[in-house]
Amino acid sequence: MSTVGSALPSTVAGTRAPRAWSRSTLLVIALVLTVVVAVQFGAVPIAAADWLNGPWNDAPKTGGAHVLWQLRLPRLGLTLAVGAALGLAGALSQALFRNPMAEPSLLGVTSGAAAAVALTLTVFAGVQVALPAEARLWLLPVVGFAGALAVCFSLDRLSRWLAPGSIAALLLCGLALQAMTFAVVGLCSFIANDEQLRAINFWTLGSLAGANWPMAAVMGGALLVLGTLALRVAPRLNALALGEAAAAHVGIDVERLRWQCIAMVALLSSLAVAWCGSIGFIGLMAPHLARQLVGADQRRVLPHAMLAGALLLVVADTFARTLAVPAEIPVGVFSALIGAPWFLVLLRGAVRRMGSA
Amino acid sequence: MASLLTLQDVRVTLGASTIGPVTLRVDPGERIAILGPSGAGKSTLLRLIARELRPAAGHLSFEGRALPAWSSAELAQRRAVLPQQHGVAFGLPVELVVALGRVARPDDGQQHLIVREALMQAQAEHLQGRRFDTLSGGEQARVQLARVFAQAWDARDGLLLVDEPVAALDPGLSVSLMAAMSDFAERRGHALVAVLHDLNLALNHFDRLWLLKSGRLLADCDALPATLPLLEQLYDTRLRLLRDEHGLAILPMVAGAVGARA
């Protein structure tokens, strides 16, 4: 008995850990390569000398150095952080709803944030003007958070009340909430003036064009905090896969865990939406990729979903920047063009496994 | 001896059906089978004891303390539950599902050993390395049983609540798993409360029977052959008792069979 027992951990460690490890490495290498390529691609070519001509250097900036240090790198930083945030938000909402098809933008959480932002931009435009300039950067994230939280909370209650445990019912509730939030956005566009309309358009389509260093830094910091918190709840999220009742039986405070998840999903989605608009489907694709690579253990899914989300969004944004140079296509268009067919493929898989969703 | 679990005038409502009021107790190390026809409220009673449902009236206490006063983590160290539904979302590996039984405890380095041995006791060690969602119903039941074993592994004099643990298994497996479960509970002094459909398992492996019919407690009696009339009343059917050196067996009386023989 004891020899068998002691043989187990080494075989488990010997067969599984290296494979998962090498797949993680593969993902990191793919991400680094994509980033390197993404920096070089663009309307303005970047020379090697531009890399040395950074903000620390007082020398007059060439066009390339300006583009690199003031536009491309902060944008890349924000893209990485937003992509990782979307991937994490997707992974968390899938774990929360025990549903591989869940995703903040599909469930209306993202558009809830967008609706709150649109309301702030138009109906409550006066509030924004009254605020000092430094506070304005924060107004939209805070408002977006409130909108995302409201949708997330209503969704949680509605789907439990109408049809607990049903994947289809959850997505349909999300659809209904999304329709409501779109109606709010529509109403706001209707009463908006030209300038407000452009801003709303920016939010509904999603774009990373407005990136600057402070945004990238705040997003990165928020990601660091929320990512750490998410990894701490990851073992308990695994227990949630047993079902809520069984999770409580093994000692999880399910109500508290749900609230932590809802708050994290709402925070991550609203931060992403507030500065970049709604970018859909990254949160659906990234956790799915992560599960394909490293299995379903949430302790591994969460970090890999962040990496995969960052990778996917950098690729999408690079296409968005470069396909129609000098014009730019909103990145949300790309993520939806790739993501929606992906969703259908996943749906087919889910229906096959379960007979019906 | 102080009771492990007591139910005092407890009533519970689930949908249109009401159960109770019932007053029951479980003593340490005792093995109790909950029997009754389909829809009698057996699972509802078990879920009430497992704290999944709140009582509409009455009082439940576990180890002398009101059941609602326990935190989930504390309770998880003293009692484990095997639910009727086995579904696990996503394709978690079998070892992880079993290890989830110990998620509320700090990992003391013993975890992988316990997981391994729990799988062996549940006769599921050959399922290691598989994904839970690729297993058959019977295999899933065994892995979930191993999870319950892992959870109650190092506790003593605790409580195991199981809902139809062997419903999806073939006869050989159901007998050997029932024996494994009894043995596991007995070695650790755990009381065992099980919802069962199989009268023979109930008579041969359990000390006491709670007979439920239409949400009412028909009887709380020892698991002895003398309960046969009560069981007939419970299921509204004639039963016959067979006995040999290996134990007891109860079979339904086949209509017309007696007349044909005569």
Describe the structure.
- The complex is a heterodimer of chains A (357) and B (262).
- With 357 residues, chain A is mainly α.
- In chain A, 79% of the residues lie in helices and 0% in strands.
- Chain A is built from 15 helices and no strands.
- Chain A has helices at 2-15, 17-40, 48-52, 63-96, 109-121, 125-130, 133-162, 167-191, 194-205, 213-240, 244-249, 254-276, 282-294, 298-322, 331-354.
- Chain A starts with a helix and ends with a helix.
- Chain B is an alpha/beta fold and 262 residues long.
- Chain B has one domain: 3-Layer(aba) Sandwich (Rossmann fold), CATH 3.40.50.300.
- Chain B is built from nine helices and twelve strands.
- In chain B, a hairpin with a 2-residue loop joins strand 1 and strand 2.
- The longest helix of chain B has 18 residues, at 171-188.
- The interface between A and B is large, with 32 and 39 residues.
Q: Which descriptors apply to this entry?
A:
heterodimer; A: about 350 residues; mainly alpha; about 0% strand; B: about 260 residues; alpha/beta; Rossmann fold; six-stranded mixed sheet; four-stranded antiparallel sheet; 9 helices; 12 strands; globular
In short:
Chain A has helices spanning 2-15, 17-40, 48-52, 63-96, 109-121, 125-130, 133-162, 167-191, 194-205, 213-240, 244-249, 254-276, 282-294, 298-322, 331-354. Chain A is mostly helical and 357 residues long.
Biggest sheet strand line-up of chain B: 6-7-8-3-9-10
- Rg of Cα set of chain A: 21 Å
- Seen as an oligomer or otherwise, the chain set is heterodimer
Give the overall form of chain B. globular
CATH topology of chain B: Rossmann fold
Under the CATH scheme, the architecture of chain A is Orthogonal Bundle
Which structural class do the helices and strands of chain A define? Answer: mainly alpha
Q: Which sequence of SSEs, written as H and E, runs from N to C of chain A?
A: HHHHHHHHHHHHHHH
Radius of gyration of chain B, rounded? 19 Å
Distance between the termini of chain B: 52 Å
Structural class of chain B: alpha/beta
Residues in helix, % of chain A: over 70%
Work out the largest interface and the residue count of each chain: A-B, 32 and 39 residues
Query: Would you list the SSEs of chain B in sequence order as H and E?
Result: EEEHEEHEHHHEHEHEEHEEH
- Strand elements of chain B, count: 12
CATH fold group of chain A: ABC transporter involved in vitamin B12 uptake, BtuC
Name given to the CATH architecture of chain B: 3-Layer(aba) Sandwich
